[in-house]
Predict the 3D structure of the following.
Amino acid sequence: MKRIVFLFSCLALAQPAFAAWAQDARDPGGVQAAHIHLLWLVMLAVTTIVSAAVLIAFLIPLWRAPRGNEETPPDPEAPLREERGASRSVIVAAVISVIGLFGLLVASVATDRALAHLPLDNGISLEMTGHQWWWEVRYTDANASKEFSTANELHIPVGRPVTITLKADDVIHSFWVPNLHGKKDMIPGRDSIIQLRADRPGTYRGQCAEFCGYQHAYMALVVTAEPAADFDKWKQAQVASAAAPTDALRTQGQQVFLTSTCMMCHAIQGTTANARKAPDLTHVASRPTLASGALPNTPDNLKNWIADPQKIKPGVNMPATALAEEDLRALVAYLSGLK
Amino acid sequence: MKQFVVAALALAVILSACEREARRFESSSPTSKSVTVTMSGLQPGQSNPSRGYDPHYQENAFAISQGKRLFSWFNCVGCHAHGGGAIGPALMDSEWVYGSEPANIYATILEGRPNGMPSFRGRITDEQLWQLVAYVRSMSGLVPSDAAPGRTDTMQTGTPEGRRDNENPRMSSTPPSSQR
């Protein structure tokens, strides 16, 4: 008993750490996650009651059973005697089970309906593509000059519905931000749609929820739900091309980027680098993480990542680039300045 | 005894497939650099064996399929299509202007060729280059068929690389411009 109490107090103490991780379906940040959370609570309550009832029903006969001692004569007839009230018990249990299951069915259908009836007025829409192992996010716009791409981060305005078209480039991935909605698979060659709304500002963690290869675990996403004004400001900054470097070191860094292996896969708007097979780096320094949540975005981490991605995320498609120390420093200075 | 032999044979068959998709995670792959290869099939004396390449890539299913991925990422398909050729020469036939040995193809990608083939020197790593070489060779059936790709991520229109016959390419003296 003491041990159990100890275990539970450990769990209680660990709670703040979980909260900081910010991936928790029990802490809904939007109306749909709240519906899902409610359904989860209903399921938990019903199944807890049922388990307890089954356990009690199992324990009562054990407790009521006649006890014998060494003098009691053996009773070989006992299993053959008819149980009193057996059919009544079975019927009662069956009726209660059917009612319980039907109740859960109703709750589940009601939740599904609620999830599907998100009002979509005044919404925004964007496109996400799952790659091994990163998320491409494309904010679409009727005006093509206002479109832009980012990676591994999603900014959404609080209180406005967001329609996300999900695609996959290579294998099946699954989009899952537990604080906002349930999972939705991203299937190559097939578009699917998820609609969600964040009602509380905050930073939520998303995660690929369909095993997609070596680095599936390091395919994370940071979702920032912010007030509309902040969102518009962020969008404005993202639409802009990368500012041209002004000092010598960063100019050298840009040259390194444009004349080495980087520009075969990456794009930086405002330069000639325009490849689409790896994250768009136009505003890479403004993102919270590197390598899809594998590292916090700091210049040191960026340097280690460029020097040898295979050490940090073995199997990733980005190859190690053998650069001279000063070129690497210049490149990191250039990229760290792309706010 | 007989059972033992059967089990040993079965084990041998199963284990022989172990290395098929083996991956290397070692990191430092230097940026591609030049190798010395001959451009012509004609040379005085005995022919040189090709040098400077790692057979790992030519027989490894992962390396070849990664090469296939890079073939479209780096826009090789833009000129060579999916092997049938367009502005660039076909890669699935038996007429090879600059040679079909791994070292020849390596040099072709690295240095470029006259009339349009760009040089990828310094733009791709050595490992990526060998993966591309392996895939290019798989197009005309020059790699073991169990290692060549059997399917495509996008719509498959031709015979999968794994089921192509060896074209036994020979050096062609016809200039690429008259091969279209």
